[in-house]
């Protein structure tokens, strides 16, 4: 290998020669004329805005700061100016803004509704289900969960007043869920009946409209709000995934959140494809969650592959719905799976575990090598949350005598 090649490999991805253009990351389904401009870490965004307006002529150009650190601008301009923008000093990269998708489907798109199985499944190593769905610990008390999703239906009985409407991507918006997805995921994480961490607090960070439409730009604004306002201990769950072009902005946002002591949970995505193609699932720092079907197979819609860290129930999950205080509905998807892991993270944080230890701990404690069917390179790891000690299964010895506690 020549020295020149070694040099290029060592510095790949870094603009090491003044005047090299920044990289451009296209989306297969871009929003025409709308771009996220990532700036170098020490770049003054106001100065960069001035440079952009100068290069682009200023006419009809709208530029807004959507993430302070790492710095990102959202700008509209004609793509014919792309080469100019990529050569402006201080620009680290440009990516297309594009739609992101919620990672769930309603029951009308799914198989027949199954009896509630999910909370029962994750506190035992093997099937059959034992009818116990309790978890050890204090239910995630004092932990703050931030859901980048459709908001939360405030006042649902599942939340017992522990839900907080925290952010709306629309100026003047009320942050209330008018879609259902966010309320459903929130109750899987903290709901009094449907939830894993029943004493944690959940914050709605609304990045989707009523029809579930969102963009990388909207999600980035939500990330920015959390980076500035978060309360610790902190878990952030994404309810969305990008298209298969990925997103350096979302990936960088995850890294920033973990640097700020939040644990980040991401759905693997619901396209039945490689999870390493989408953001934030492909992020190294996030806990990426695939959907487990009943009987321990990968759910047919779930993404798969080596970017998944763990699987959790994601088929036919009953949880709260947004129509009324007592409403519920059944959805499937990797967002539902991620809701279980978010609750499990809250239990760990509430027990005093440091945020940077949680991912490795959940992986270490997962139920390994028990999944069935084709895994497509995914790790065979299912979420495991310990039951209370008094619910640990007891078995008499074969010849009578003392009862031995069996660790499940
Ligand atoms: Ca059980």
TrEMBL record:
Q: Name one GO cellular component term.
A: extracellular space
Active-site residues, Swiss-Prot/TrEMBL: 149, 181, 335
Q: Which InterPro entries would you find in this protein's record?
A: PCSK9_ProteinaseK-like, Peptidase_S8/S53_dom, Peptidase_S8/S53_dom_sf, Peptidase_S8_Asp-AS, Peptidase_S8_subtilisin-like, Peptidase_S8_subtilisin-rel
Which SUPFAM superfamilies does the UniProt entry name for this protein?
Subtilisin-like
Signal peptide boundaries = 1-19
Keywords in UniProt for this one? Hydrolase, Protease, Serine protease, Signal
Sample GO molecular function, one term: serine-type endopeptidase activity
Which GO biological process annotations does it have?
proteolysis
Task: Supply the Gene3D superfamilies for this chain.
Answer: Peptidase S8/S53 domain (3.40.50.200)
User: The Peptidase S8/S53 domain covers which part of the protein?
Assistant: 140-373
Q: PANTHER family, alphabetically?
A: ALKALINE PROTEASE 1-RELATED, PEPTIDASE S8
- Family from the record: Belongs to the peptidase S8 family.
Protein name, entry field: Peptidase S8/S53 domain-containing protein
Q: What species does this protein belong to? A: Holothuria leucospilota
């Amino acid at each position: 290998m020549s020295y020149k090649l070694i040099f290029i490999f060592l510095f790949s991805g870094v603009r090491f020669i003044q005047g090299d253009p920044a990289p451009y990351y296209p989306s297969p389904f871009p929003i025409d004329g709308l771009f996220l401009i990532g700036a170098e870490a020490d770049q003054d965004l106001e100065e960069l805005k001035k440079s952009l307006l100068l290069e682009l002529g200023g006419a009809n150009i709208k530029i807004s700061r959507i993430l302070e650190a790492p710095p990102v601008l959202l700008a509209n301009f004609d793509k014919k100016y792309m080469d100019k923008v990529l050569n402006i000093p201080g620009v680290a990269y440009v990516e297309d803004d594009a739609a992101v998708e919620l990672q769930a489907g309603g029951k009308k798109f799914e198989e027949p509704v199954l009896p509630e199985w999910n909370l029962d499944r994750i506190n035992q190593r093997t099937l059959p289900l034992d009818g116990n769905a309790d978890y050890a610990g204090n239910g995630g008390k004092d932990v703050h969960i931030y859901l980048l999703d459709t908001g939360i239906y405030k006042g649902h009985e599942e939340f017992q007043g522990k839900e907080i409407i925290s952010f709306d991507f629309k100026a003047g918006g009320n942050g209330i869920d008018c879609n259902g997805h966010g309320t459903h995921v929130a109750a899987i994480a903290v709901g009094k009946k449907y939830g894993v961490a029943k004493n944690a607090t959940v914050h709605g960070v609304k990045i989707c409209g009523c029809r579930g439409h969102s963009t990388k730009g909207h999600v980035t604004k939500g990330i920015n709000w959390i980076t500035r306002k978060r309360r610790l201990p902190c878990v952030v769950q994404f309810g969305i995934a990008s298209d298969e072009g990925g997103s350096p902005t979302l990936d960088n946002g995850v890294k920033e959140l973990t640097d700020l002591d939040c644990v980040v949970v991401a759905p693997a995505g619901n396209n039945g494809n490689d999870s390493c193609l989408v953001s934030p699932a492909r992020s190294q720092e996030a806990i990426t969650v695939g959907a487990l079907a009943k009987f321990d197979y990968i759910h047919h819609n779930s993404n798969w592959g080596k970017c998944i860290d763990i699987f959790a129930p994601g088929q036919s999950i009953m949880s709260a719905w947004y129509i009324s205080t007592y409403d519920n509905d059944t959805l499937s998807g990797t967002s539902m799976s991620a809701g279980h892991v978010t609750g499990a993270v809250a239990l760990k944080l509430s027990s005093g575990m440091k945020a940077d230890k949680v991912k490795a701990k959940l992986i270490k404690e997962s139920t390994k090598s028990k999944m069935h069917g084709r895994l497509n390179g995914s790790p065979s790891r299912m979420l495991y949350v310990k039951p209370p000690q008094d619910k640990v299964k007891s078995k008499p010895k074969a010849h009578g005598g003392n009862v031995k506690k069996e660790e499940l």
